[in-house]
UniProtKB/TrEMBL annotation:
Pfam families xrefs: Oxidored_molyb
Extent of the signal sequence: 1-23
Domain of life the protein comes from: Bacteria
Keyword Nucleus: no
Annotated protein name in UniProt: Oxidoreductase molybdopterin binding domain-containing protein
InterPro entries xrefs: OxRdtase_Mopterin-bd_dom, OxRdtase_Mopterin-bd_sf
Domain Oxidoreductase molybdopterin-binding positions: 28-164
Originating species: Arboricoccus pini
Keywords, alphabetical: Signal
Protein backbone atom coordinates (compact mmCIF):
# COMPACT_ATOMS: atom_id res chain seq x y z
CA UNK A 1 0.00 0.00 0.00
CA UNK A 2 1.40 3.41 -1.00
CA UNK A 3 1.84 6.08 1.66
CA UNK A 4 -0.81 8.29 -0.02
CA UNK A 5 -3.35 5.47 0.17
CA UNK A 6 -2.41 4.86 3.79
CA UNK A 7 -2.87 8.56 4.52
CA UNK A 8 -6.26 8.46 2.78
CA UNK A 9 -7.32 5.48 4.89
CA UNK A 10 -6.18 7.17 8.11
CA UNK A 11 -8.04 10.36 7.12
CA UNK A 12 -11.30 8.49 6.41
CA UNK A 13 -11.09 6.59 9.71
CA UNK A 14 -10.50 9.88 11.53
CA UNK A 15 -13.48 11.52 9.76
CA UNK A 16 -15.71 8.54 10.54
CA UNK A 17 -14.82 8.76 14.25
CA UNK A 18 -15.33 12.54 14.37
CA UNK A 19 -18.67 12.49 12.51
CA UNK A 20 -19.86 9.67 14.75
CA UNK A 21 -19.25 11.84 17.82
CA UNK A 22 -21.20 14.74 16.25
CA UNK A 23 -24.97 14.71 15.92
CA UNK A 24 -26.31 14.82 12.39
CA UNK A 25 -28.41 17.93 11.80
CA UNK A 26 -32.07 17.00 12.20
CA UNK A 27 -34.59 18.24 9.61
CA UNK A 28 -37.72 16.49 10.90
CA UNK A 29 -39.02 14.65 13.97
CA UNK A 30 -41.77 12.11 14.46
CA UNK A 31 -44.46 11.98 17.14
CA UNK A 32 -44.81 8.28 17.90
CA UNK A 33 -45.98 5.69 20.41
CA UNK A 34 -49.23 5.92 22.35
CA UNK A 35 -50.97 8.56 20.22
CA UNK A 36 -54.06 8.40 18.03
CA UNK A 37 -52.53 10.47 15.21
CA UNK A 38 -48.78 9.92 14.77
CA UNK A 39 -47.16 12.81 12.90
CA UNK A 40 -43.97 14.15 11.36
CA UNK A 41 -42.91 17.77 11.77
CA UNK A 42 -40.34 19.72 9.78
CA UNK A 43 -39.41 23.40 10.15
CA UNK A 44 -42.36 24.58 8.02
CA UNK A 45 -44.89 22.45 9.93
CA UNK A 46 -43.61 23.79 13.27
CA UNK A 47 -43.58 27.41 12.10
CA UNK A 48 -47.21 27.04 10.94
CA UNK A 49 -48.40 26.41 14.53
CA UNK A 50 -49.07 29.04 17.23
CA UNK A 51 -45.72 30.01 18.75
CA UNK A 52 -44.47 30.92 22.21
CA UNK A 53 -41.31 32.91 22.99
CA UNK A 54 -39.43 32.38 26.25
CA UNK A 55 -36.17 33.77 27.62
CA UNK A 56 -34.37 31.09 29.62
CA UNK A 57 -31.08 30.56 31.43
CA UNK A 58 -29.45 27.13 31.66
CA UNK A 59 -26.07 25.58 32.36
CA UNK A 60 -24.29 23.98 29.41
CA UNK A 61 -21.59 22.29 31.41
CA UNK A 62 -20.14 25.15 33.44
CA UNK A 63 -21.19 27.82 30.92
CA UNK A 64 -24.36 29.76 31.71
CA UNK A 65 -26.48 30.36 28.60
CA UNK A 66 -29.22 32.99 28.47
CA UNK A 67 -31.22 32.89 25.24
CA UNK A 68 -34.61 33.79 23.86
CA UNK A 69 -36.23 30.81 22.13
CA UNK A 70 -39.34 30.66 19.95
CA UNK A 71 -41.17 27.41 19.43
CA UNK A 72 -44.33 25.37 19.84
CA UNK A 73 -45.46 24.17 23.26
CA UNK A 74 -44.83 20.43 23.58
CA UNK A 75 -48.33 20.11 25.08
CA UNK A 76 -49.79 21.56 21.84
CA UNK A 77 -47.91 19.00 19.75
CA UNK A 78 -49.11 16.20 22.06
CA UNK A 79 -52.69 17.56 21.94
CA UNK A 80 -52.63 17.50 18.13
CA UNK A 81 -51.48 13.86 18.19
CA UNK A 82 -54.00 13.00 20.96
CA UNK A 83 -52.36 10.94 23.69
CA UNK A 84 -54.24 7.67 24.15
CA UNK A 85 -55.63 7.03 27.62
CA UNK A 86 -57.38 4.13 29.26
CA UNK A 87 -60.52 5.41 31.01
CA UNK A 88 -60.73 2.11 32.91
CA UNK A 89 -57.64 2.97 34.96
CA UNK A 90 -57.75 5.86 37.43
CA UNK A 91 -55.64 8.85 36.26
CA UNK A 92 -54.06 6.64 33.63
CA UNK A 93 -52.67 9.71 31.80
CA UNK A 94 -50.41 10.33 34.82
CA UNK A 95 -48.69 6.98 34.25
CA UNK A 96 -47.52 8.13 30.83
CA UNK A 97 -44.19 9.63 29.82
CA UNK A 98 -42.56 11.27 26.81
CA UNK A 99 -39.10 10.35 25.52
CA UNK A 100 -37.37 12.97 23.36
CA UNK A 101 -34.61 11.57 21.13
CA UNK A 102 -31.83 13.41 19.28
CA UNK A 103 -30.20 12.32 16.01
CA UNK A 104 -27.20 11.11 18.05
CA UNK A 105 -29.42 8.77 20.07
CA UNK A 106 -29.38 11.11 23.10
CA UNK A 107 -32.60 10.74 25.11
CA UNK A 108 -34.40 12.60 27.89
CA UNK A 109 -37.70 11.68 29.55
CA UNK A 110 -40.58 13.84 30.80
CA UNK A 111 -43.62 12.59 32.66
CA UNK A 112 -46.92 13.64 31.11
CA UNK A 113 -47.86 14.87 34.57
CA UNK A 114 -45.03 17.43 34.60
CA UNK A 115 -45.97 18.65 31.09
CA UNK A 116 -49.79 18.89 31.27
CA UNK A 117 -51.15 22.39 31.88
CA UNK A 118 -53.46 21.09 34.66
CA UNK A 119 -50.50 19.52 36.51
CA UNK A 120 -46.82 20.55 36.30
CA UNK A 121 -47.38 22.92 33.37
CA UNK A 122 -43.61 22.90 32.70
CA UNK A 123 -43.94 25.04 29.55
CA UNK A 124 -41.54 22.84 27.57
CA UNK A 125 -41.04 24.21 24.06
CA UNK A 126 -40.09 22.54 20.82
CA UNK A 127 -37.99 25.51 19.74
CA UNK A 128 -36.95 26.38 16.19
CA UNK A 129 -35.55 29.91 16.67
CA UNK A 130 -32.89 31.15 19.11
CA UNK A 131 -32.16 34.88 19.50
CA UNK A 132 -33.70 35.61 16.10
CA UNK A 133 -31.72 32.93 14.22
CA UNK A 134 -32.24 29.30 13.37
CA UNK A 135 -30.62 26.78 15.71
CA UNK A 136 -27.47 26.03 13.68
CA UNK A 137 -25.63 22.99 15.06
CA UNK A 138 -28.63 22.11 17.25
CA UNK A 139 -30.63 21.13 14.13
CA UNK A 140 -33.99 22.58 13.11
CA UNK A 141 -35.60 21.89 16.50
CA UNK A 142 -34.60 21.36 20.12
CA UNK A 143 -36.39 21.19 23.44
CA UNK A 144 -36.35 24.15 25.83
CA UNK A 145 -37.13 23.30 29.46
CA UNK A 146 -37.67 26.58 31.36
CA UNK A 147 -37.74 24.95 34.81
CA UNK A 148 -34.46 23.06 34.45
CA UNK A 149 -31.23 24.56 35.85
CA UNK A 150 -28.99 22.31 33.75
CA UNK A 151 -29.33 22.03 29.97
CA UNK A 152 -29.32 18.23 29.88
CA UNK A 153 -32.95 17.94 28.77
CA UNK A 154 -32.60 20.63 26.10
CA UNK A 155 -32.48 17.79 23.56
CA UNK A 156 -31.11 19.16 20.28
CA UNK A 157 -31.36 17.71 16.77
CA UNK A 158 -34.76 16.34 17.70
CA UNK A 159 -35.78 13.27 15.67
CA UNK A 160 -38.56 11.71 17.80
CA UNK A 161 -41.07 12.44 20.53
CA UNK A 162 -42.47 9.16 21.85
CA UNK A 163 -45.33 8.59 24.27
CA UNK A 164 -45.24 5.47 26.44
CA UNK A 165 -46.92 4.11 29.56
CA UNK A 166 -45.35 3.02 32.83
CA UNK A 167 -48.17 0.50 33.27
CA UNK A 168 -46.97 -2.93 32.17
CA UNK A 169 -49.82 -4.86 30.59
CA UNK A 170 -49.17 -8.61 30.82
CA UNK A 171 -49.21 -10.10 27.32
CA UNK A 172 -51.72 -12.86 26.54
CA UNK A 173 -48.60 -14.83 25.55
CA UNK A 174 -47.65 -15.04 29.21
CA UNK A 175 -50.94 -16.75 29.91
CA UNK A 176 -50.35 -19.21 27.05
CA UNK A 177 -46.95 -20.15 28.44
CA UNK A 178 -48.53 -20.72 31.83
CA UNK A 179 -51.39 -22.73 30.32
CA UNK A 180 -49.02 -24.89 28.26
CA UNK A 181 -47.13 -25.75 31.45
CA UNK A 182 -50.28 -26.91 33.28
CA UNK A 183 -50.68 -30.41 31.77
CA UNK A 184 -47.05 -31.12 32.63
CA UNK A 185 -47.61 -30.01 36.20
CA UNK A 186 -50.70 -32.22 36.51
CA UNK A 187 -48.71 -35.16 35.08
CA UNK A 188 -45.94 -34.61 37.64
CA UNK A 189 -48.45 -34.43 40.49
CA UNK A 190 -50.15 -37.66 39.40
CA UNK A 191 -46.87 -39.54 39.14
CA UNK A 192 -45.15 -38.13 42.18
CA UNK A 193 -45.11 -40.63 44.98
CA UNK A 194 -46.69 -39.72 48.32
N1 LIG B 1 -29.06 15.58 20.93
C1 LIG B 1 -28.40 16.00 22.01
N2 LIG B 1 -28.93 16.99 22.76
C2 LIG B 1 -28.29 17.45 23.84
C3 LIG B 1 -27.05 16.89 24.26
C4 LIG B 1 -26.52 15.83 23.46
O1 LIG B 1 -25.43 15.28 23.72
N3 LIG B 1 -27.20 15.43 22.35
N4 LIG B 1 -26.42 17.36 25.40
C5 LIG B 1 -27.29 18.01 26.38
C6 LIG B 1 -26.54 18.67 27.43
S1 LIG B 1 -25.82 17.67 28.59
C7 LIG B 1 -26.49 20.04 27.56
S2 LIG B 1 -25.77 20.78 28.89
C8 LIG B 1 -27.06 20.92 26.51
C9 LIG B 1 -26.02 21.85 25.97
O2 LIG B 1 -26.69 22.90 25.36
P1 LIG B 1 -26.04 23.75 24.18
O3 LIG B 1 -26.19 22.91 22.94
O4 LIG B 1 -26.84 24.99 24.13
O5 LIG B 1 -24.59 23.98 24.54
O6 LIG B 1 -27.60 20.18 25.40
C10 LIG B 1 -28.27 19.00 25.75
N5 LIG B 1 -28.86 18.45 24.57
MO1 LIG C 1 -24.64 19.06 30.00
Amino acid sequence: MTSTRLLGLAASIFLALVSNAMAALSTAFTVSGGVTTPATYDQAALAALPSTTRTVTYLAGKRSVTSTFTGVLLTDILDRATVKTNPGIKSEILSRYVTATGSDGYKAVFSLGELLTDFGNAGVLVAYRQDGHDLGDAGFARLVVPGDTKGGRYVSNLVDINVASAIVTPLPGGFLVLASGLPGLLFLRRHAGG
